[in-house]
Amino acid sequence: MTYATLADLTERAGDAEIRQVADRDRDGTPDPDVIAAALEDADNTVNGYVGAKYALPLQTVPPLVVTWAVSIARYVVHGNGPPAHVIRDYEEAIKALKDVARGLIALPVEAGETPPTTVNGTVMSAHPDPVFTPEKLRGW
C-alpha cells in the first residue's frame, strides 16, 4: 500500500506537469515505473520518520500523510531540476516528518477512527529473540 497515488500527484501538480516530468519514453502518459519509484521513495521516507514514533504499517492513513507523500514523490519525480515551489513543499514535508519522529506533531485522527499505535506507547514493535543472553554467555 502506498501513501499516495498517481491520482494524488496529478490532483496536486496537474496532468501536464506529471506528464512532463514522468513521461520518459514520450508516449504521452506518465511512465508507470517512474511513478512507482517516486511513490516508493516517498513511502520509504515517510516510514523512516513515522516509524520512529508509530507502529507500521499505519492501519489508516491520515490525509496529512498523503500530502507529505505527494510532496516527496513530486520532488523525486522532478529529478535534478524541481522548481522552487516543489522544493519548498518537499522541505516542509521533511520538516513536519522530523517533528512527527520527535513527537512534536501527532498524526491526526478522524472522528471514530482508532489512533495509530505509538512505538514508545502501549505497544512495542516486534523484534527477534536476542542472540546473546546472560544464560548463553555463561556457557562460553
Task: Kindly list the characteristics that best describe this protein.
140 residues, mainly alpha, 6 helices
Topology:
Blueprint: H1 6-13, H2 15-22, H3 32-50, H4 63-78, H5 84-102, H6 134-138
Helix pairs in contact: 1-2, 1-4, 3-4, 3-5, 4-5
Can you give a write-up of this model?
- The chain is 54% helix and 0% strand.
- It has helices at residues 6-13, 15-22, 32-50, 63-78, 84-102, 134-138.
- The chain has six helices and no strands.
- The chain is mostly helical.
The low-confidence parts are 122-127
Helix coverage percent of residues?
Answer: 40-55%
Q: What is the terminal separation in angstroms? A: 46 Å
The largest sheet, given as strand count, sense and whether it forms a barrel, is:
none
What structural class results from the helix and strand content?
mainly alpha
Mean pLDDT: 86
Shape: elongated
Round the Cα radius of gyration to an integer and report it: 19 Å
The helix-strand sequence is: HHHHHH
Per DSSP, the total helix count is 6
